[in-house]
Specification:
10 helices; RGP_fam; RGP; 9 strands; globular; single chain; EC 5.4.99.30; 33% helix
């Protein structure tokens, strides 16, 4: 397995880093060598009158709630407040082809040899090589140096399909729900698994937003992190919702999602009691949400992400509205999100996910 950095393009003019925060961004100092060549979009949550300090040497733009209201007007009600779901506003205002998003409690991890992991470089590798959602390769990612498709893998599927999403993992504090946090308060993830794999077609997965990259031109309009936080009955399901919607749409349009490398170091656990309050409706709603997403069928004339997403919103309203009125509100917000996306990004939404 070669480790040459020269083989991976930096995409410095094609990628934005989106960070949601309520605090000073001292954590960026550690990421300096890896992030300073990129443009940062900081989405400030909470009190817009608070000043967020950003270390020197970073090229960034910062949006607070007042900016969101000014840019989106009445459509700003689709962007969550007092919840990291507000990060998706950054996806909408970006003009780049790729997005990497990271939480402000995520630090640079080290591989088993002690070398610092360039998470962004690995995400770029994942996004620039194809995915294999239709047939599982037992040696995992066949496009990595030093590996290939195994015997018995159909040659007709070896070209793979475009990769829409690269989902990275975390050392130290695992991304557990509140009940698991409560029964395993001291559990830490120390296992570094040196693997990247494609999530198979027809399989859902829990998408965590704290170490995530995606091809914004391909899948951006589906990366809506829902209605969470202030005034909503649920939190901590923002990235999950986006992941389920995105996976269903990628399966329909024939694109892939990878999970595995890169790792970041997740530095602190959030309060499990606060988390339980945010999650408890989601924990039992999920038992109806998952069968819904498993059985979603998108019609053939849904040839763009936007069309798929609007169709999905109709099915959410028709089938999940009876679970709770919240899903009627969420379905409306999904439509508002697409309208706002298309206003800010008038060139997207062409057939078959192609872009000008």
């Amino acid at each position: 397995m070669s480790d040459s950095t020269s083989s991976t393009p930096s995409l410095k003019d094609e990628l934005d880093i989106v960070i949601p925060t309520i605090r000073n961004l001292d954590f960026l100092e550690m990421w300096g060598p890896f992030f300073q060549q990129y443009h940062l979009i900081i989405v400030q949550d909470g009190d817009p009158s608070k000043t967020i300090k950003v270390p020197d040497g970073f090229d960034y733009e910062l949006y607070n709630r007042n900016d969101i209201n000014k840019i989106l007007g009445p459509k700003a009600n689709c962007i969550s407040f007092k919840d990291s779901a507000c990060r998706c506003f950054g996806y909408m205002v970006s003009k780049k082809k790729y997005i990497f998003t990271i939480d402000d409690d995520c630090f640079v991890a080290k591989d088993p040899t002690g070398k610092e992991i360039n998470a962004l470089e690995q995400h770029i590798k994942n996004l620039l090589t194809p995915s294999t959602p239709f047939f599982f390769n037992t040696l995992y990612d066949p496009y990595r140096d030093g590996t290939d498709f195994v015997r018995g893998y159909p040659f007709s599927l070896r070209e793979g399909v475009p990769t829409a999403v690269s989902h990275g993992l975390w050392l130290n504090i695992p991304d557990y729900d509140a009940p698991t946090q409560l029964v395993k308060p001291l559990e830490r993830n120390t296992r570094f698994v040196d693997a990247v794999m494609t999530v198979p077609k027809g399989t859902l997965f829990p998408m965590c937003g704290m170490n995530l990259a995606f091809n914004r031109e391909l899948i951006g309009p589906a990366m809506y992190f829902g209605l969470m936080g202030d005034g909503q009955p649920i939190g901590r399901y923002d990235d999950m919702w986006a992941g389920w919607c995105t996976k269903v749409i990628c399966d329909h349009l024939g694109w892939g999602i990878k999970t595995g490398l890169p790792y970041i170091w997740h530095s602190k656990a959030s309060n499990p009691f606060v988390n339980l309050k945010k999650e408890y409706k989601g924990i039992y709603w999920q038992e109806e949400l998952i069968p819904f997403f498993q059985s979603v069928a998108l019609p053939k004339d849904c040839t763009t992400v936007q069309k798929c997403y609007i169709e999905l919103s109709k099915q959410v309203k028709a089938k999940l509205g009876k679970v709770d009125d919240y899903f009627n509100k969420l379905a409306d917000a999904m439509v508002t999100w697409i309208e706002a996306w298309d206003e800010l990004n008038p060139s997207t939404g062409l057939p078959n996910g192609s872009v000008k």
